[in-house]
Amino acid sequence: MDKEDILARIKSFAEDFAQRKLNPYIKKISRPNVIRRSAKEINDAIWGTIKFSPLEVVVIDSPLVQRLRFIRQLGVVHWVYPGASHSRFEHSLGVVHQAHQLINAINQASDTAAAAPPVDAEKAALVRLCAVVHDIGHGVFSHVSEHALARQLDLKLALQRFAQAHGVEKIQLSELVAHYLIGSPAFHEMLAIAFDSLQDPIVQGGNSQENAARVAGLAQRAIIGHHIDEQIPLLHEIITGPFDADKLDYYARDAKRAGVPSTLDISRLLQKIVTRTVLSRDLSRDGLGGLLERLDNKHHTRHIFGLKWSGAAILHELHLARVLLFAKIYRHKKVSAIESMIEALFDALGSHPDVDVIDLIALSYGLCDDEFLLSGAATLLRALGVTEDSPGLRAFADDTLGRLRDRDLYVSSLSVAPRYPADPWAHDTSQQRGLGQLASDCKNEQKLATLRKAIAAELRSIQTALPESAGGLDPEILKYAVAISAKPALQGGTEIDRALILQGGRFVQGRELDFLNRTAWADAYDVGKPQAILFTPRECAAAAYVAAERHVRTQYDIVLPRTAQEISKQDPDEIDQLKLTLESRGWYSGVPFDIRPVPERLRRQDVERRVEDLAAKLTTIDEPIGSLPPRRPPVMQARIKSWLAQFREDAVISCALAALEQLKVLGRQDNQAALVAFAEAHPEFKGATICPLGDIKDSAIVQAYLSLDLERVFPRTMSLEDAMASGSAKSIVLLDDFTATGSQTLDILGNWFDDDRLKQERLQEARLPFGEPERTFLRSRPVGLVFVAGWEAGLERIRCATRELGLDARVFAHLTDEAIPFAFEGALGGQDPEALSAFKKKCRQVGKALLASNEKDARKQGERALGYGNRGMLLASRFNVPTQTLTCIWMDGKYEGVDWHALVRRRPKA
Amino acid sequence: MPPATDVNLVTSEEFVTDLLCRLKLNSVDKLWLVDTNEDKRFALAFKKLVENQERLHIAVDFSLATNPYHGDSSTLRETLYSLRERGIVAINNPTFRTVEITVEKDDAQYLLKHSSIPPDFMAEIVAEIFPATGEPDGQGRYPRQN
User: Fold this and answer.
1) Do the domain assignments include residue B139?
2) CA end-to-end span of chain A, whole Å?
3) Domain ranges, residue B27
């Protein structure tokens, strides 16, 4: 659709609508003596008797205003607050009453009241007439339909264009339609006929047609927030302003009819109004400089009204009254659910290829609330001119209308929050950014529509995998039945803060006052409120949660925490059971492990305690920090469970849990035990100097540092270079934590003694060669090579190497093959052999996949799938994890196309 | 104009977020809403956005135009208010006069990179409409533009 054309088409629609509504009425009032010349009094439930002028009665009795009797002021609120069934018509009469009260207060508080009240009879009549017609642009369900329609992007952009073209901040569809209805030829004609028959102060000479055009033009301006009087430049703010008649009526009426308390004290507010005559040139001084460029230069003074300084606190009451209304009534969760159903219905109708936004607008003005509710799909589609059948749309429309009539309302499926309580990912950058992006997208109609469709598609895929999950709903209905309500946070009340306050003889705006906690009213009621809520039919709410969870995980990188279920009022057991069933149907294939259901094995009673013990052990390992994805829970206990859950099968998880319990973490005691045992086996080394077997980049440095605790046995610890320089070392102990095949030690020795047979080029470790003095130093005294743990085969290789190098060496390890746990060489002997075999198979598959995703070739994948050497070792030190340890414990990567996270990451060699 | 479905819709939250992120990267940490100068500057930035929306292949569904009678923009102020939830700004003062730009610089980079509005364009707007006229004071505040 050509966007330029939409405003013209809405104008045309409004003029046509006005003509259809008013033509019979115009004929009627054109007849003699039909128009009453006396005032009319109407008893209002809130304000009592309200008196209306004959002109006002003509307009009130017109079908354009009478139709407001059949449109409820609060749209759908009466489903939640049964008493709040009042109409737009009642409200419009109430606004006239409040406008009248404001006019009286402005006049009485004027410094010119005695001579001439600023709001004379003509201006008063104009303002009151504006009040009568200010809401005639409302369609079915009041704001509910206009918000639903504004989700149509073309209309949203057209409204913005109108606002821009007319120099106003924003405009709603109801205001736009009211603006066009009042400007329509039929409305002009109605006014002209009334003017011909009545002596109303609003008529100022000229002919009736001209007066009608003038008055309607002024009312049009007031509706969109433009000034309507040069002498009282803010006169229009009685209709649309900081404390306008509209607010004074609906704040009180809506609260009263819903049975909710209000803090608004209207009589006090009226009492505090003040009016001053201000020199036009002083308007800038009073913070109203913007007015000057819009006013003519014929008036040297203007009447400005505001609140006395002593009444400034009334702004607080207005703020609080507004916040209470929004928090308790307009934003009530169930109210939002019903609104979202109607929005979903409008969205669905708008998706038919034969329907455009003007058709939808026509529909919303063609039916009143109850007609709409009592209708069916056939009526709505006929009203839209749809001839081509759409069974899915028809079924959805009938389903939705039926649910509304039966109060079988949609329920919350997922509450979207910018942050969730007790979120284990709360400090994770991906989580924070994902939640922020999701919240932002929910406010963008275009992205929101995409999100809605994507979740609906996920929901349908669940239904395909597990038909009973959608409660028997027709798949065609499901396509439309995902609704998202995304309302902005309770606003700060900028408009209220524009109220002028007389302070020290000049007006200042409310926003300039040093009011404390002005926004706190809203904040207090906004705490914990979601940014958006996903609503669906009750029978598929759990499935929709799971669908949304998968979507936000894959598209926004968000892992919904457990508390998201609580906030969304989901039953965790139901969600778990559904997820388990879906997994068994393959629905989670290719989906990250972290949102898959918790495997049954991890729900057993023993898990918490065992994981707690494991966490105490594993947190002693100082992992490298600063590494990036994949994501994994930052807290160790959660991380252990998450790592175990990656194995998916219960029997395999049991083995994995047992394997972690067998994992040996070398600590300070092991270091001491190794040195003590070495000294006992080789007493000649008592008093030896301890040197690290390696450089600063090797963990041997830390082992040497820890050996300082054994000063009584080994009094000196220093680098090999320092030991040689001191000349005091009779024997040397070269210390390291672990050796497997001995390759690293051979590499060190090969480099020290420049022996190519020993150098391990494949390790690609840069090491400096010794000079002849260092070599002589080592060859001239006993040397111990002590490891806290070591494989026998590797130790033997080192022994051979030292012999070949001519060293007088003792090679020793405190823990050797029999004491080192190996997953598949007895450490898991208590496990069921079949389960252990499955565990081994799984570890091999995962290991290969991880190596492959880390660009290791097929040979290395084969040799290292269970850890380098494929022995499935279960060993770590406090500072690193050897590569020989089971690969799936320490390596990140991809498995079956999704991220596999390491339990404990290793620190790679520099 | 291309059809609405063929352009990227930009909301006030996205645009204001982008502006604040750009300002943050320019080491501007605070804004003052004590008068309507900031409203006018944001309105000017918005005008630039609207002028370029066809070229940028975007559409805006809001206006930051200031109220003709009161000089402020309710959309701007309500948007700033709502951005607190996302940690983009903080309004630590009870009178809503000082808006502290709290978004971290790396997050600002991230948000600009993932925005519908090209980062270069935002940089141009900020350079043109929010130029720093001197050194920031001890609190990272730049001299006010008038």
Assistant:
1) no
2) 62
3) 4-129
Interface of A with B in 126-185 (CB under 8 A): 153-154, 156-157, 160, 163-164, 167-170
B61/A290 touch (CB, cutoff 8 Å), yes or no: no
- Cβ distance of B78 and A512 shorter than 8 Å: no
What structural domains does chain A harbor?
A: 3-236 (1.10.3210), 332-409 (no CATH), 410-489+531-598 (no CATH), 604-638+823-900 (no CATH), 667-815 (3.40.50)
| Per-residue model confidence (pLDDT) at position A546 | 98
Chain-chain contact of A290 with B3 (C-beta, under 8 angstroms): no
Residues of B with CB under 8 A from a CB of A: 1, 3-5, 8-11, 13-14, 17, 33-35, 50, 59-63, 65-75, 77-78, 81-82, 85-87, 91, 94-96, 107, 110, 114
- Read off the pLDDT of residues A231-288 as tens digits, 9 standing for 90 and up: 999 999 999 999 999 999 999 999 999 999 988 999 999 999 999 999 988 887 777 7
Residue contact B65–A289, C-beta within 8 A? no
Three-state SS letters, A291-334: HHCCCCCCCCEEEEEEEEHHHCCHHHHHHHHHHHHHHHHHCCHH
User: What pLDDT is attached to residue B138?
Assistant: 53
Cross-chain Cβ contact A440/B17 below 8 Å: yes
Two tokens at A333?
Answer: 């969760």
A350 touches chain B (CB under 8 A): no
CATH number of the CATH domain containing B53: 1.10.10
Phi, psi of A80 (to 5 degrees): -100, -45
Within A22-130, strands assigned E span: 40-44, 48-52
Q: How far is B13 from chain A (nearest CA, A)?
A: 7
Hey, are the CB atoms on A290 and B70 less than 8 Å from each other?
yes
A450 interfaces chain B, CB cutoff of 8 Å: no
Single out the residue of A445, A75, A98, A398 nearest to residue A258, CA to CA.
A75
Find the mean pLDDT for residues B19-42.
89
What is the per-residue pLDDT for A627? 58
> Is the predicted pLDDT of residue B134 greater than 50, yes or no?
no
Question: Does A519 contact B1 at a Cβ distance shorter than 8 Å?
Answer: no
For chain A, which residues score pLDDT lower than 50? 1
The DSSP string of A366-380 is: HS-HHHHHH--HHHH
Q: Do B60 and A163 touch (CB under 8 A)?
A: no
**Reported confidence tier of residue B121, pLDDT bands at 50, 70, 90:** very high
Q: pTM for the full model?
A: 0.90
Identify the closest residue of chain B to A530 by CA–CA distance.
B85
Is B120 a domain residue?
yes
A1 to chain B: closest CA residue: B3
User: Are A495 and B74 inside 8 Å of each other by CB?
Assistant: yes
- What are φ and ψ of residue A89, in 5° steps? -65, -50
Token pair in block for residue A840: 């081994």
Per-residue confidence (pLDDT) for residue A387, from 0 to 100: 84
Position B2 scores a pLDDT of 41
Domain count, chain B: 1
Scan for tokens 């040799």, then name that residue.
A863
How many CB atoms are closer than 10 A to CB A75?
A: 25
pLDDT at residue A495, as a whole number: 83
Report CA Rg, chain B.
Answer: 15
Question: What pLDDT, on a 0 to 100 scale, did the predictor assign at position A517?
Answer: 57
Judging contacts by C-beta atoms under 8 Å, the chain A residues touching residue B89 are none
pLDDT at B139: 52
Chain B CA closest to residue A4: B1
Nearest CA in chain B to A286: B70
Q: What are A685's two structure tokens? A: 């080394």
Chain B closest-CA separation from residue A763 CA (Å): 37
Residue B26 has pLDDT above 90, yes or no: yes
Contacts of residue A832, defined as CB under 8 A and 6 or more positions apart, other chains included, come to A651
